[in-house]
Design goal:
641 residues, alpha+beta, Immunoglobulin-like, four-stranded antiparallel beta sheet, 21 helices, elongated
Length: 641
């Protein structure tokens, strides 16, 4: 038996381990979209904007009274979630580290609660092992490092579950009071705590039906919790009568999703390869069922308790998701304690007898190993990073944009807006499409009307591929404007579109030359490579006369002898001006054309290189000569790192 002193030392060590894992690289990644939304709306905005309708003055309103719905409609969560973040942010600040520390601390409390629950229903060894599995649980850590309420709620929920079991077992008034308080905190933190409450009610009705005194106190506690929460629900439903609630982005019920995504995610997080998660799902299901049967043979009441905590929320979310898109593992994180207790009780009991000791050790060892692999992926494998690098995009655009530009963010991700606003750049930005129902004609009208105000469009990221209007913006721009630059700061696509007509003040001072009697070069702009491994060159041709046969322009990257070619050429882009849109056989004398060349530098070694520009006859490859001599104009040197 573990001595009390020793068990407390071990528990403290486990709590410290869990806290260390939750703060490790806590601010290494920027806020994802939902986190940025939390900061912008839960923390910065007045708390009243989350809870009550706001009457606004709108000259375009069609009624005398224009109402802006509160945040509880657009981002539906119970009021305690907003309040916690609002108060926390006011005291600690708005940085990634500061804001994320709230769910870190709350989720760490869950380690102690997990120990208390395991100890209460099966003993210290189970409590310590369950606390350890919570401490290293990848899904708990993922959400503990995420500025939403999904990391706070599970800890509040497991605390309420422990206090419920304690009250049912000891049956003292103070324990019932503590349980009611914890239950209210949990349900006012996250709506779907209702599923856990329902599971506890199923358990109590099945196992305590003949214990009238205990059952009476349970009914009173439920009346207080549900009655108090009903007051909020009535207020919330009254607001919904005036506004349409945000419907969410998760999908509907799918048995395949339940087996291949829910079970692995709630056991080992979502930072294992998808194929592996799908592959282990049937094995995991069989293991959990066998654990349940094994425990039922030893303690039927505990088996009913754990079974209710798993089955009831799963059934409930499956039903609710038939009319609300809420079918995602994070919405039933409250069942994680039951899953962990199934594993810890079974492995602990198996290890108490010599013939099955190896099996219990194997079960817990494999569980810990998979958790650690998933954790390593979460921390160190960019494939599983949860967020786009919006900080890099904001910095890039702050450097590249002009006052008459418009930035169009096509993903409606609040993360971009949050970091872009921090740069203080005055260039306008907007989200487009507004949503997946945004009609093509309306999107195109916005783009067309914008040209009266803005000279250039920056397109950030890509529209959700599942939206029916996903290609509308790119298709319109590729028809009406010239794509002049493609970059990928932080791995996120950024594209610049310009009008076809070249404004006089756009033409740069730079290398110039005349190629025979055909064309003048008025300069070029060179954009060094970024993460997309491409050099982009804008060349400004002035047509002097059209030609009988088509010419191609070229930009060549030359340097020391290339072993692959036996000459100085390392990369090139040869094309008719504007990819044939300004063919030399039809271009208009006196007209200036912007011609875009892209040089792929992937696999080109570091060093100094020169960019050469010229024209040649497409049919025979004969180059035109420049007035300064030679058949190419040097645009300058560039150093590749």
């Amino acid at each position: 038996m573990l001595r009390r002193y020793n068990s407390h030392i071990i528990l403290v060590a486990i709590i410290l381990l869990g806290f260390a894992l939750r703060v490790y690289r806590l601010d290494a990644l920027p806020f994802r979209g939902d986190e940025a939304f939390t900061v912008q709306n839960w923390v910065i905005q007045p708390l009243s904007s989350a809870l009550i309708n706001i009457e606004i003055d709108d000259p375009d309103a069609t009624t005398d009274r224009n109402i802006e719905p509160p945040l509880v409609v657009n981002d539906p969560h119970p009021p305690l979630a907003y309040t916690l973040y609002h108060v926390w942010g006011a005291f600690v600040g708005l940085s990634e580290l500061a804001i994320r520390m709230l769910p870190v601390l709350a989720n760490t409390v869950g380690i102690a609660a997990m120990y208390a629950l395991g100890k209460r229903i099966w003993g210290k060894r189970v409590g310590l092992l369950a606390a350890l599995l919570w401490a290293i649980h990848p899904f708990e850590i993922w959400h503990a490092q995420d500025a939403r309420n999904y990391g706070i709620w599970p800890a509040m929920s497991v605390t309420a579950i422990w206090l419920a079991v304690r009250a049912l077992t000891i049956n003292r008034p103070r324990d019932w009071v503590l349980y009611v308080i914890a239950g209210l905190i949990a349900i006012y933190t996250y709506y779907l705590e209702m599923f856990i409450l329902a599971a506890l009610n199923v358990y109590v009705l099945v196992t305590y039906i003949r214990e009238r005194g205990t059952l009476k106190r349970w009914i009173i506690s439920q009346a207080i919790i549900w009655g108090t929460f009903a007051l909020w629900l009535l207020y919330f439903l009254n607001i919904l009568r005036q506004s349409k609630m945000y419907s969410g982005t998760a999908g509907g019920f799918s048995l395949e999703t339940l087996l291949t995504l829910f079970l692995p995610s709630l056991s080992f997080g979502q930072t294992l390869p998808a194929d592996f998660m799908s592959g282990i799902a049937p094995i995991l299901l069989v293991i959990l069922i066998l654990c349940m049967v094994y425990i039922a043979r030893k303690n039927r009441r505990v088996a009913i308790f754990l079974g209710a905590l798993i089955v009831v929320p799963v059934i409930a979310i499956s039903i609710v998701s038939s009319f609300l898109p809420v079918y995602a593992p994070r919405y039933i994180l409250g069942i994680v304690p039951a899953i962990l207790l199934l594993i810890t009780i079974t492995s602990t009991e198996l290890m108490t007898t010599k013939p099955t000791r190896w099996l219990g050790g194997l079960l817990i060892s494999v569980w810990v190993a998979l958790s650690l692999v998933s954790l390593n992926n979460h921390f160190h494998d960019a494939t599983f990073y949860k967020v786009d690098e919006w900080r890099s995009v904001a910095t890039y655009l702050d450097h590249m944009t002009q006052s008459d530009d418009l930035i169009i963010q096509t993903t409606s991700d609040a993360g971009f807006g949050y970091y872009y606003q921090q740069t203080g750049n005055p260039t306008d930005e907007m989200g487009l499409p507004f949503n997946k129902e945004h009609e093509t004609s309306a999107i195109e009208a916005i783009l067309a009307e914008g040209l009266a105000t803005y000279d250039r469009y920056w397109i950030v990221a890509r529209t959700n591929p599942e939206w029916p209007n996903r290609n509308v913006i790119e298709n319109w721009l590729n028809t009406h404007m010239q794509r002049a630059l493609v970059a990928a700061p932080g791995g996120i696509d950024v594209q610049l579109y310009l009008p076809w007509d070249v404004a006089p003040d756009e033409v740069p001072d730079g290398p110039s030359a005349q190629f025979e009697e055909t064309a003048l070069v008025h300069g070029a702009r060179i954009f060094p490579p970024d993460s997309n491994q491409t050099i982009t060159v804008w060349v400004y041709w002035e047509a002097l006369q059209s030609t009988e046969t088509p010419l191609k322009g070229f930009v060549h990257l030359v340097g020391d002898v290339n072993p692959a070619t036996g000459g100085p050429l390392w990369a090139q882009d040869d094309q008719e001006p504007q990819d044939g849109g300004a063919a030399t056989t039809t271009w208009q004398p006196g007209q200036i054309y912007r011609d875009i060349y892209t040089i792929d530098i992937a696999n080109i070694p570091a060093g100094d290189y020169e960019l050469l520009l010229g024209l040649y006859e497409q049919e025979n490859g004969i180059r035109l000569t420049a007035d300064a001599g030679g058949d190419a104009l040097s645009l300058g040197t560039i150093t590749l790192p």
